[in-house]
């Protein structure tokens, strides 16, 4: 039995763009996100309140958030690594934030210059203040199916950390296959372990497509009852602190697969293509998504 409805969380404007070297202005990002807002997503990630020295591309996230046209039914989250980021989020009147953690000690240091234990303390502090301010919190976990620095990461450790994040007040934990090492049976083993600790309805999957496994891993996750997936318009992206990581699974490829299986996700594929074309023109390169390329080549 597959879920009848899938939630698609669009992460292209954050996970997608954070890795891009060319300077993308706040104005261009606003136009891009406004195009995404026409597609009927319920979740569009806008950017990050992180250090501009670490991730320069995200430095205009406050300006972008302020200027986008926001749909009432859509949430527009931004990532927050510490209380400085949270302060900026509060000043921008952000309604949903994402915290991030990992069960890989090496990746934790590379990504946030912080140990796992210190990250947990930071997150507790962030959540205490965010909850008081009626902010919704989503959590990310990186390297759940392998780490570029440590290799295999214990699924049990990931499950325990996921449990901590939900216990502290996050509404969902997105399990990130940061470098795309995962294959379908490993994905199912991971979900099995995590779902021993937290309910399936609180698990999302965030699958980078480096080895072309993301669609297969999504299907394997759906077979386990997972119904929330992060995708990136056109297949944009990567993580600046995970060498070799390519983009998240392309939104267009996921919608095409779901449409073909008769599974509803509510997102308009044709309108996603318009946003894809827009951003890839700015980036001056070809769209990664095979679905987008196939449809667009027929249209021209
Ligand atoms: P640090 O250098 O250890 O921090 O960075 P620090 O406390 O020593 O501060 C250094 C400077 O940064 C100070 O400024 C702080 O004020 C400033 P200075 O005195 O030098 O002028 N600072 C900040 N500025 C703006 N916003 C902040 C902030 N915090 C400190 N929030 C820090 C620690 C966490 C800040 C840094 O490591 C960082 O920003 N890391 C972010 C890394 C990142 O964004 N990674 C990508 C997102 S996660 C991801 O992509 C994975 C995911 O997609 C899932 C998956 O695929 O796995 C979610
Ligand atoms: Mg990612």
Question: What overall form do the CA principal axes indicate?
Answer: globular
SS-based class: alpha/beta
Helix content: 40-55%
Number of helices: 12
Distinct ligands: 3-hydroxy-3-methylglutaryl-coenzyme A, magnesium ion
Strand content: 5-15%
Major sheet, described briefly? 9 strands, parallel
Summarize model confidence as the mean pLDDT.
96
For the termini, the CA-CA separation is 39 Å
Stretches with pLDDT under 50, minimum 5 residues: none
Spatial strand sequence of the major β-sheet: 2-1-9-8-7-6-5-4-3
Radius of gyration: 18 Å
**Could you spell the SSE succession in H and E letters?**
EHHEEHEHEHHEHEHEHEHHH
Please provide the count of β strands: 9
Commentary on this structure:
The protein is an alpha/beta fold and 300 residues long. Helix content is 43%, strand content 13%. The chain has 12 helices and 9 strands. The protein has a 9-stranded parallel β-sheet. Strand 4, helix 4 and strand 5 form a beta-alpha-beta unit. Helix 2 crosses helix 3. It starts with 6 loop residues before the first strand and ends with a helix. The mean pLDDT is 96. The site of magnesium ion has 7 residues, from loops.
Which characteristics define this entry?
alpha/beta, 12 helices, 43% helix, binds 3-hydroxy-3-methylglutaryl-coenzyme A, binds magnesium ion
């Amino acid at each position: 039995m597959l879920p009848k409805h899938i939630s698609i969380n669009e992460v292209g404007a954050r996970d997608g763009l954070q890795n891009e070297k060319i300077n993308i202005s706040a104005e261009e990002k606003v136009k891009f996100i406004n195009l995404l807002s026409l597609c009927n997503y319920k979740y569009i990630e806008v950017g990050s309140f992180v250090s501009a020295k670490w991730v320069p591309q995200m430095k205009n996230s406050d300006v972008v958030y302020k200027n986008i046209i926001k749909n009432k039914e859509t949430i527009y989250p931004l990532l927050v690594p510490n209380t400085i980021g949270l302060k900026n989020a509060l000043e921008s009147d952000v309604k949903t934030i994402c915290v991030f953690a990992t069960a890989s000690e090496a990746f934790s240091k590379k990504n946030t210059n912080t140990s796992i234990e210190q990250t947990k303390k930071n997150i507790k502090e962030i959540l205490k203040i965010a909850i008081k301010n009626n902010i919704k919190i989503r959590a990310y976990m990186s390297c759940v199916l392998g780490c570029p620095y440590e290799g295999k990461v214990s699924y049990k450790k990931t499950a325990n950390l996921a449990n901590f994040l939900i216990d502290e007040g996050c509404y969902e934990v997105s399990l990130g296959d940061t470098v795309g090492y995962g294959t379908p049976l490993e994905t199912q083993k991971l979900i099995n372990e995590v779902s021993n600790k937290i309910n399936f309805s609180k698990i999302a999957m965030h699958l980078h497509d480096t080895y072309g496994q993301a669609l297969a891993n999504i299907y394997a996750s759906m077979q386990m009852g997972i119904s929330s997936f992060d995708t990136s318009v056109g297949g944009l992206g990567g993580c600046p602190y995970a060498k070799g990581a390519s983009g998240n699974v392309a939104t267009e490829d996921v919608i095409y697969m779901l449409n073909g299986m008769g599974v509803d996700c509510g997102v308009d594929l044709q309108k996603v293509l318009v946003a894809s074309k827009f951003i890839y023109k700015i980036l001056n390169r070809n769209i990664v998504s095979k679905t987008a390329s196939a449809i667009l080549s027929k249209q021209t």
